Amino acid sequence: MQLFEESDAHPEALGGERIAVLGYGSQGRAHALNLRDSGYEVAVGLRPEGKTWARAENDGFAVRTFEQATEGAGLIAFLTPDMVQARIYENILPRIRENATILFAHGFNIHYARITPREDLDVVLIAPKGPGDLVRRQYEAGRGVPCLMAVHRDVTGRAQARALAYANGLGGTRGGVLTTTFAEETETDLFGEQAVLCGGLSELIVRGFETLVEAGYQPEVAYFECMHEVKLIVDLLHEGGLAKMHEFVSETAKYGDLTSGPKVVDDHTQERMRSVLGEIQDGTFAQNWVSEYESGLPEYNRLLQEDLNSRIEQVGAQLRGRMAWLKE
Ligand code: NAD
Ligand code: MG
Q1: Among the listed ranges 44-53, 164-173, 214-223, which one has the minimum average pLDDT value?
Q2: Could you tell me if 78 and 25 are in contact, meaning their C-beta atoms sit under 8 angstroms apart?
Q3: pTM higher than 0.90 for the full model?
Q4: Which of 106, 228, 238, 246 is catalytic?
């Protein structure tokens, strides 16, 4: 793996060209503001009826439609939700300048061939490893969130230099820019959120909570143990890995961790993780998600409602209402 830093970037690789940022959500807003502060000319492209239009205007951008923002831009960054990018690409295609660069922050649409870019376009990825507000705050503090960088197609011979200049404009080179491929970024990102971060962790919490409640313990106590305190442990892991967690929990907690942890998450769990990964790699997950999205999200909405109606959510809402600092 290659690591690029600030001194490796050539900001002028994107100099004198307008950058179109399509979408003004978590990533879009941070990218647009950081790039502008780095001296680039930025056009924000949005849906005319969209909620973020006023926000972008308040931040001082001349907001345009996707098509207008694309007109004449040297680099077009797709920062709308993944599921609408293919349609936006079709709509703006006639306006994309010859030999322009199209840039993604997640490889989904390219990797699963939902977008097949026109032959003359450079296609790159810059994926900050953090949410947009962190990308913005770190930039303002003179630091930067590390980014992944990939080149899917290099027609001009300048694709990587341009991607790196873009990452540099975000502040990403201050944190380091690591090379990857569209396939690796897409598949590992999906796996992480499904097996570990969103899916795996939330399921572990809910199952733990239900186990205690079923055994007759008070739901409030179970909530503190299985949901609330996750943050303490995650912060330790985030700051210093397993070593720091072991350093700060009690001897008893450590012994229980080392002996009981592997009974709960075991070889069977890992076997199922491999099968989740398999469906990401062979495109099954992507196909399911696209067809669910296109049929109006019935299953997604049903499952989401089930999560939101669950007992742990009801107990949690009451308890969190008593913790004033959580609202800050
Ligand atoms: P988001 O949902 O926060 O914002 C998307 C923006 O796109 C909205 O604010 C709006 O301006 C516009 N938009 C929303 N719905 C739309 C629609 N139906 N049609 C047209 N425009 C619409 O999105 P995000 O989380 O910033 O994600 C943008 C891209 O960045 C995605 O490819 C995502 O995978 C990637 N990414 C996100 C994060 C993250 O932390 N959120 C991190 C790395 C990469
Ligand atoms: Mg869940």
Answers
A1: 44-53
A2: no
A3: yes
A4: 106
